Amino acid sequence: MQHKNEKTLQFNKILGKVLKELREEKCVSANKFANEYDLSSGNYNRIENGVFCAKFITIWQIIEAHNISFSEFAQKFKNKLGEDFHLMDI
Length: 90
Fold this sequence. Notes:
Largest sheet: none
Number of strands: 0
Distance between the termini: 11 Å
Shape: globular
Helix content: 55-70%
Number of helices: 5
Oligomer: single chain
Number of domains: 1
CATH superfamily: lambda repressor-like DNA-binding domains
CATH architecture: Orthogonal Bundle
Order of helices and strands: HHHHH
């Protein structure tokens, strides 16, 4: 079992990876995306890089900006996390 901090880091890294993939599908830079949706570009970059633990409402706003449902995002995220990942371990 991984240490809790390692699990949190894994969670944040994968969250950022999924968000980055969604943004890259739009062929837009992180700064342009952040500015377009009134997000702090610095924080948005840190979220994508997995070094910033974003608030749930911020994640929801980003998901809505990508025009996908929360459940669709959650499925993409869950698939990247893998079967052995459990939030209770964080």
